[in-house]
Write a structure and sequence with these properties.
It is a single chain. The protein is of the alpha+beta class. It has 4 domains: 30 residues; 94 residues, no CATH class; 111 residues; 155 residues, no CATH class. Helices cover 24% and strands 35% of the residues. The strands form 8 sheets. Strands 6-4-1-3-7 form a 5-stranded mixed β-sheet. The radius of gyration is 38 Å and the shape is elongated. The mean pLDDT is 86.
Length: 414
């Protein structure tokens, strides 16, 4: 075994080493000079020398089209093995071209973005490729943006109230036909309540002056962007001046006591009046309902949740519980609801009260938009208004027709 190893590695070692070195040199020369053909995918296309008032469908502000091209390239094997579409760009000169033309792509259109990839030395041929380009008038338009209701869940201890403003505008530059189609269709933007933390709302609530039951979370600028791939490769920020007022409103889920007692009465639909009317059925008094000065009132303390103290202060004397009478053949248990008397007047009072207070959060909003914002907030409170018991449960009533009375029994006061 030893003699075999000696013959292999020791005898004539100079000639063997020279042969090995020569073989490595030949391999390196052949490898570096070997030519292959490779298809490179996803090569971006850039149009240059386009007139300022013109553009091309799908062209970004930097001249890059949103379509990419695959080219068949012949050249040095070692270099082409590592090249990708990120290393190259196709440049097409639009100078002197008609509104629509066929651009023929060859090696002269290819530009290397990689300093280590020398096109002149490493590429011998590019298989011709044709692309149809159409110029269009470049126009600028304001696109309507509809702010949709948020998705997700409000942080614990808070209730989603509203998002405002509902409508904004976004300025877009692009081909005339595409921009007009987008303007007719409009855009939407939606926020996710899960992206807002309870600690953020707690901090805002602690800093509020006066409206301690309401919290306005102003949308960060990073959220005020919309992706429109045909016009920009990055999201476009909403540039409407009113976007700085974009906010999501929350109300705290604290129980707020209703001052005083609430009247309760019965509505008798005319279609049942032959048998159901104030003369045939009276609302029965009990521990839940008492009669004061000839008016039936709810005798137990009730609460509201998800509204503000200012709202309750405004509507406290104009709330009543209304029972809808219907025969047992229609319903075994009668329906009821809490209603507001003369809601338009109440809305005006609420808006006037808020505007009369010092409220910096609305200071930068135009007067008519400020009023719209407050009216929408009031209507949201009315729509969500429910009566609660002291144990944080929505008031539940069992209301039935008896012999000649209507009895009301609370089911969840305890």
């Amino acid at each position: 075994m030893r003699s075999l190893l000696v013959r292999l590695f020791v005898e004539n070692w100079q000639r063997k080493l020279a042969s090995l070195i020569l073989a490595m040199i030949i391999w390196m020369v052949v490898n570096h000079s070997m030519t292959v053909t490779k298809t490179v995918h996803n090569i971006p296309v850039r149009v240059i020398n386009l007139l300022p008032e013109k553009t091309i469908e799908g062209m970004q502000a930097n001249g890059i089209l949103n379509k990419k091209v695959s080219l068949t390239i012949t050249g040095n094997k070692l270099a082409l093995d590592d090249v990708s579409g990120k290393d190259l760009v196709i440049e097409i000169d639009s100078a002197g071209k008609a509104d629509e033309w066929i651009a023929s792509i060859s090696k002269k259109n290819l530009v290397s973005l990689n300093p280590d990839f020398d096109l002149n030395k490493l590429v011998s041929k590019v298989t011709p490729y044709q692309i149809i380009l159409r110029q269009s008038n470049l126009i600028t338009e304001k696109i309507p943006v509809l702010v949709l209701q948020p998705i997700g869940e409000a942080p614990k201890g808070y209730q989603f109230l509203d998002v405002w403003p509902y409508h904004l505008w976004l300025t877009v530059n692009g081909p005339e036909d595409s921009v007009k189609k987008l303007k007719a269709k409009g855009l939407t933007i939606t926020f996710n309540l899960n992206d807002i933390s309870r600690s953020e709302l707690d901090t805002l609530s602690a800093s509020n002056q006066g409206l301690v039951d309401e919290v306005s979370y102003f949308i960060p600028n990073s959220w005020k962007k919309i992706s429109i791939p045909q016009f920009s490769d990055t999201p476009i920020e909403i540039d409407d001046p009113q976007a700085k007022a974009l906010r999501i409103d929350f109300s705290r889920q604290d129980l707020l006591p209703l001052a005083g007692s609430i009247p309760i009465s019965v509505f008798f639909p005319p279609k049942f009046s032959n048998t159901l009317n104030p003369e045939t059925y009276q609302l029965a008094a009990n521990d839940f309902i008492v009669k004061r000065n000839g008016i039936k009132m709810v005798a137990v303390p009730l609460y509201a949740q998800g509204v503000s103290r200012l709202f309750l202060e405004t509507v406290k004397d104009m709330i009543q519980v209304m029972i809808i009478a219907s025969p047992k053949t229609e319903r075994e248990t009668l329906l009821w609801s809490a209603q507001f008397m003369y809601p338009h007047e109440l809305e005006d009072r609420y808006v006037a009260k808020v505007l009369s207070q010092s409220n910096d959060e609305l200071g930068d909003v135009q007067p008519h938009l400020r009023e719209d914002y407050l009216r929408n907030r009031f209507r949201s409170y009315m729509n969500r208004f429910r009566l609660y018991t002291p144990n944080h449960k929505k008031l539940s009533l069992k209301i039935e027709l008896q012999a000649n009375t209507i009895t009301v029994t609370p089911l969840n006061l305890n």
